[in-house]
């Protein structure tokens, strides 16, 4: 059964004759009759009683009319809804893969409560890839690390985080107030391969001949957190407030701190400006650095 057959059927039922229905549909009467005959063959019932000045619905036709009316109403509703998608602005937001998903979900949820007409698309990537995609116009804004070269006209700081050693709460080092980098030698360790300081950290360890036992290489923050909580290893990572079963310790011979902000292109839309203002005013307390 095709939609055009349903339309033919309803038009005949409304006008009362095949000839009037054909005029309204801008069809020849033979084409209309052929469409209805095909529909009746597919349904296995006669829908109209032929003969006389008016075309009368059979009992089966009366029953099908109710269904056909619903089908056309649903089709029109779907058309209206899909056309609305063309009118909905879409904002493509790039997100640093070393940020926590739960915290970003709060931002997205809050933004959509205020701007329900905007469709948000989220893409997570390392910092270098985010910069490339922003430059090439593949994303509209990026929540990413800021460097000294970033222009105040196209970026703003959201929060800062120190990178500390995360250890399981039951680990012997959890009783300490600080550690030295050398104490990581031989320890089960979780590499954060998308960390902004990953290369620098590897160079430091190699220069000092410190060899942690790498048990996992994680590309996303939630994996690192879960693995440390489970007691599977240690990791140098950003400080996140409110985590249980993890103790953070400063490493006295390194001083890593990252500045996370939002970046956009110089020529941007009003929607991008709205999102940037919203992100700047968002409560980032749980992502901000330790005391």
From TrEMBL:
CC annotations in GO: protein-DNA complex
Pfam families referenced in this protein's UniProt entry, alphabetically: HTH_1, LysR_substrate
UniProt keywords, alphabetically: DNA-binding, Transcription, Transcription regulation
Domain HTH lysR-type: 1-58
InterPro entries: LysR_HTH_N (IPR000847), LysR_subst-bd (IPR005119), WH-like_DNA-bd_sf (IPR036388), WH_DNA-bd_sf (IPR036390)
One GO MF term attached to the UniProt entry: DNA-binding transcription factor activity
Chaperone recorded as keyword: no
Gene3D superfamilies assigned to the protein according to its UniProt record, in alphabetical order: Periplasmic binding protein-like II, Winged helix-like DNA-binding domain superfamily/Winged helix DNA-binding domain
UniProt record similarity statement: Belongs to the LysR transcriptional regulatory family.
Protein name, as recorded: Transcriptional regulator, LysR family
Organism: Acaryochloris marina (strain MBIC 11017)
């Amino acid at each position: 059964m095709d939609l055009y057959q349903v339309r033919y059927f309803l038009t005949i039922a409304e006008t009362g004759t095949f000839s009037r229905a054909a005029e309204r549909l801008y069809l020849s009467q033979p084409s209309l009759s052929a469409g209805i005959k095909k529909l009746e063959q597919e349904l296995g019932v006669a829908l109209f009683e032929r003969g006389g000045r008016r075309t009368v619905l059979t009992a089966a036709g009366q029953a099908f009319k109710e269904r056909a009316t619903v089908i056309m109403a649903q089709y029109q509703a779907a058309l209206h809804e899909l056309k609305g998608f063309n009118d909905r602005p879409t904002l493509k937001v790039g997100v640093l893969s070393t940020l926590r998903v739960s915290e970003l979900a709060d931002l997205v949820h809050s933004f959509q409560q205020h701007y329900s007409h905007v469709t948000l698309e989220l893409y997570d990537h390392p910092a270098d890839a985010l910069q490339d995609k922003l430059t090439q116009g593949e994303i509209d804004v990026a929540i990413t690390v800021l460097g000294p070269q970033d222009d105040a006209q196209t970026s703003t700081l959201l929060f800062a985080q120190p990178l500390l050693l995360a250890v399981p709460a039951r680990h012997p080092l959890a009783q300490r107030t600080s550690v030295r980098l050398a104490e990581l030698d031989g320890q089960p360790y979780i590499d954060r391969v998308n960390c902004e300081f990953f290369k620098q950290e590897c160079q430091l360890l190699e220069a000092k001949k410190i060899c942690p036992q790498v048990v996992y290489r994680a590309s996303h923050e939630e994996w690192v957190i879960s693995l440390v909580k489970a007691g599977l290893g240690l990791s140098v990572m950003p400080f996140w407030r409110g985590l249980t079963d993890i103790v953070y310790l400063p490493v006295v011979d390194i001083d890593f701190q990252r500045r996370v902000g939002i970046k956009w292109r110089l020529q941007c839309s009003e929607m991008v400006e709205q999102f940037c203002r919203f992100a700047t005013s968002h409560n980032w307390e749980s992502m901000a650095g330790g005391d």
